Structure formats: structure tokens, C-alpha cells
Amino acid sequence: MKTKPSKEILWVIFELIIYVFIAFIFMGKALLHPFAMQVGGGGDSEQAMWFLGSFWNSILHGQNPFISRLLNYPGGINLMAVTSILAESFLIGPIVYLCNTVFAYNLLFFINMVVSCYLGNLILYKLGSRRWMSVLGGGLFGLMPYLSAHSLGHANLLTVVFLLAIIYMSIDIINKNVTRPLLYGFILGFIAACQFYTSLEVFATAAMILLILLGLMFINARDKCSNIFIPINIKTILVALGICTLFILPGIIELFWGPFTISYSSPIQPRNFYVNDLLGFILPTPIYLLHGHATTLIASKYTGNVAEQNGYLGLSAILLLFWAAQRLWKRRLTKILFSLVLISIILSMGPYLHILGYTTKITLPWILIEHLPLLKQALPSRLMLYGDVGIIILIILALEDYLNNNTRKSKAITLILLISIYLTWLPIIPFPSFQIPSSNQALLRNGAFYDNLKGEPTAFFTSNFNVVMEALADGRYAFPVVNLYGYAKNTPAMTSFKQLLEINDDSQKYLTQNYLAALIRLTKAKRVIYIPRSKSQHEISIRNNLEMLLGKPLIDQSGIFLWKVPNNINAVWFDGEVWDNNYCILNGKASWCGKNWSVNTSGQDAQITITAPPKIFRPQGISLKIKKGASDQSVRLKPDESIKILLNANSSINFSSEDTFIPDEIIHNGDKTHLSVQMAIDIKPEVK
Could you give the count of Cα atoms lying within 13 Å of 55 in the half-sphere of its Cβ? Predict the structure, then answer.
């Protein structure tokens, strides 16, 4: 940008005022309390805070930064399999130690918002937009609906600075403006690696969009494509690919072959759920300023949630998009970008068209790619990131072309049209923010609980463990927790137990004294913390059960209760392949078992009932191997036949099935789980 120094300073001040103002709009009340209140809603934000400090915590303790044993104890989690924002943890993690995690998260949000606007500005300027147009267009990059939705808490998705930087640098490659290919390639490769460690999903979808873009360029501008592959560009691209591969290789190895790896054989999130509704492109969700009661009611019908409803554009942007395409259609860039925008929009609607939350039978192209590796875990609605970027570029370039009339009328109309987009994309004011509970202070290093928790595996019973994760980070990761976050490798039995750590109305009735004892023994927790959300009868019942099991709380402060787990706690617990969706296996009701499982007792007896599947599932019956102590025996059960086994206190028994069946083969419900028998456990009176 060749301007006089004094004029350049004025431009920089002008840009800074606009972009900082946009960032401040999103920060809302968190702007006034940056150390205690975070941008967006509670939940996902606190998870991101935990990850922000995890990288340097691992490095400072000589541990592998790609895995952690501080969550999901006694196992751990593979940080490459969750939204761990390792790049941001590496770059901004020290702020966690200098200030606190809330401030670090808010700072990350602020930097991303301002720099995204600046990068959008530079992209538009490099594509031929005049200075003031590129400045205002840069502001749209900060306001684009994709960012507004994910500003509610998805740090891995709202951090788009790396992607925008890649776009900016790629324009130089296409235009053959690279003069130092080795340095340029190194920087480009490093930025691409940062995107990989920010969001593997965005990295994968960006690679897909890049392939589509190259295909569109080949169709519409073959000569331009051939011009890209000049020696200096090839050198830049090869260096970038080499550096990116070098940096991401450790993450790939940990993701697929490291500890606590999980299976990606099927989608983690529900299929055909997080997609953009056809009406969602026109009508705003409740996070936009120009929403109303009617639009909120309509948006409530969409599948997914507000943070994943990324399709909103508004009538102004939609009409300007088609006007821009018509005005600039003779340009090859327009044909390429408009096609890419339409493809992104169509893919974001998922495998079937949704209208007002209703799934039609109209199939869409996503159905062809939703089973591809990595992409099967991507949520279609998030592809609007690429649609939003393309739409902004097309509209600004078309308005730039219109401004060539060089009249006051054209300038006034251009400003009015830009303001119309600004208004339709403006978020609600104040934007949602979340106050960190004061009770979290009790878990920090100077808090009442710290000395009793340090180094001790702890089980948190709470309705929102995500919020607790902020305190764990601010407490410098002083103790492991049995609670899990995201997707971790566990047996189904362990998963079913740990799901009950997250207290909700449905789970409360299952948290009997016996079940609590089983959970504590299976997870090897040495401390138990209970954070009730209310004084309801259910909450009081859970606390009473904990007191009957563990005695009086060691500490009762700030609405938090802490127990030390006795060494001789009486419990009956199971482990292994047990599918216990109803949490009833310890209440004498039957649940399905897989191929291998075990039952253990401490301090009390248990009677185990094993029932073979009905004739429709296993007409020939089932064979079991039972190992109890030093003895082994084989048992053959006819369909629906049952046996009862008494298991004395302080002993264990192991089962393995020689035959299993897959329910889908009989009832076609999509379940591919291998099952064998049903099992129920009756707890006998405690041994005196």
C-alpha cells in the first residue's frame, strides 16, 4: 500500500478503530471484566481455556503435549482427537501463567477478530479493491455469520486467521509475486500446520475446498493454472508442503497410533443433524440484532443448535451476491468464486434438504462424500466458512466495479449497500458473555480445597463439568480428574459410569448408593466433589447417598462438598463390554453384554443373573466361559435360559462369550454392536 507516511498513519488509525470496535461488540460485558467473564456462552469456552494452558503445562513437566492423563483418569485422552487448539496453546499459552485462563481466552478472541478483519482487508486490496472499500470489506470478515455463530464458544472454529493468511499468501503465488520462495514457502507451510493444530476438521474441509477450487480454475482458466506452475512457484509450493508435513507428522502419528486413540469407523456426531436449513439462509437466528419473535420461533425448528446454524446471509447479502455475479460474470474469477460459493452452500445443507426443520427426501451432494476419511467427522453446516469468504470478496469486487462510475451517487449507493450488510450481520448487543462462578475460586491454589486435592484423582459430580475445567487450568493442573471431555477411549462400561458424573434430571434417579460406590471403585477416584445446581429433592438425595457411602464431607464451602474416599469402601462393579444405556445393571435389571466383561466385589456379596438371547437373535443358544479364581468352566445356555451365580465379597469373576450377534442383522436398527447375553446384578446385604 504505497501512500505517504502521514496518510498511511491515518489509514491505520481508521482501520484500527473499525476493527477494534467490531471486536468490542462481540466481547460484550467481558470487555469490562476480562479476567472473570468470557466472550460467548458457558461450556465450550471453558473447555478451550483448559486446552490453552495444556501445551506448556505438559512441556514444563516433561510430558507429551499430544496426550494428557489429567482428564479421563485412570486412562487419559488423545488431544489430537478432541478440539484441543494446540497451535493457540503453543502461541498464547504463556498468558495463562502470566494472567489467568479467562483473560487468555478473551485475548485470543480479540486478536483473532482484529487480525481476521485486517487479513480480509489485505485480501480485498490485493484483489484490486480501493483502500476505503477494502477497509470496510475487511470489517465484514469480522462480522461474517460463520464467525458470529461460533463466537458463542467454539475457539477451534472461530480462529480463522490462519486460513485467511493462507488465502492471502496464495494470491501472491497465483499472481507470481513471490520473490523469496524458500522463506515464503516456510511461512506458508508453518501457517498451514497451525491450522492443522487449530482444527483438524477445518484443515480437512479446506483441503477439500482447495481441490474443488483447483478443478474450477482448470475448467474456467486453464492458462492461469499453467502460469502458476512456474519454477519459483513450484519451489514455494514444495517447500510449503514439506514444512507443513514435517510439522503435522507428529500430530498425525499421535492421532492414529498414539495412546488413547479412538475408532473413527463411524461418525462421532449424528448424521444429517448439524446442517443448514433452507430458511436459515434468509431468516436470522437469535444471535443477530435484527431478529424478532417470529424468526426466533422459526429458528427453533431447525436441527442442531444456534452455534451450528451457520447459514444465515440475509436478503441484502443474497441479492447483492447474485447482482455481483451478473455484473462481473465475464471475469473468470467471478465464475470460479460464484461456483465455489454455491458448492459451499449446497454442501453445508448436508445429505438431505431441510426446510423449517423438516427433512425432505431431496438428496444433496454431501451424501456422496460424507463417508470419506476425516470428512465423515465434519459437520456440513460449518462449510459456510468458505461460502461467507467468497460472498464478501464477490460483493466488494462488484461494488468496486460499480464505483468506477466515479460519481457521488455511486459512492452513496455503495455505502448504503455496505451498511445494509453490516446491519443484517450485526450481532445482538450486548453479545452473550459468561460469568465464571465464584465457587471456582475454592479450587484454585489459594482456595480451600487445593491442599486436599493436589495430586489426588478426583471425581466431580456436577451439572456442568466444562465450567470446572477453567478452574483446573487456573489451578495449574494440580490433580487428575476421572471426568471425561469429548471423545476418549473407554470400555462401554466405563463410559456409562462416567456419563453419570454429569448430573442432569434424567441421571439423578440412577445415582443410588450402590451405583456411586461402583463408579468410585471403577474410576479409582480418591476424592469426590459434588457441586449441586439447586436445592431440589433429587440433589439432596444424591448428597445423602454420598454421605451414607463416604461419611460427612471433609469440606463444605462455597456450595461445594468434598469427600475423601475410604480405602475399604464396599462396592460391586462391572467392567468390560457392557452396554448399559439405562444405568440399571446394578439394580437387578438386565443390560446387554458384549464378548468380554467382569464383575468385582468389595465388602459385600452379589448375585449375578445371566440370560441368553431370545430365539430370534440366537436360535442355537449361546456358550460362555466363566473364570472364577483358579477355576474355569464352560456353560451352554438355550434361548431365554438363565443361570444365577453367587459372587462372594472381595472376589471377581470373568466372562467371555464364544458366540455373539449383531442386532442389525435381525431388526435393522443401524446398530453394529456385537452382543451376547443379558446380565443383571442383585446387591446382597453388606458383609458385617
Answer: 19
Model confidence pLDDT, tens digit, residues 502-548: 887 777 777 888 889 999 999 999 999 999 877 776 778 888 999 99
Distance CA 455, CA 559 (A): 23
Name the amino acid, one letter, at 273. Answer: F
Cβ contacts of residue 451 below 8 Å, gap of 6+? none
How many C-alpha atoms does 463 have within 13 Å on its Cβ side?
Answer: 11
- At 210, list the grid cell: 482447495
Place of cell 476425516: 374
Length of the chain: 688
**Residues of the chain by 3-state class (helix, strand, coil), percent to 5:** 50, 15, 35
* pLDDT tens, residue by residue, 431-472: 999 999 888 989 998 888 999 999 999 999 998 899 999 999
CB 268 within 8 A of CB 377: yes
Residue that has been written with the C-alpha cell 487479513 in this structure: 119
pTM of this structure: 0.91
- C-alpha distances in angstroms, 347 versus 325, 379, 550? 20, 10, 53
- Residues near 270 by Cβ (< 8 Å), separated by ≥ 6? none
3-class secondary structure for 584-637?
A: CHHHCCCEEEEEEEEEEEECEEEEEEEECCCCCCCCCCEEEEEEECCEEEEEEE
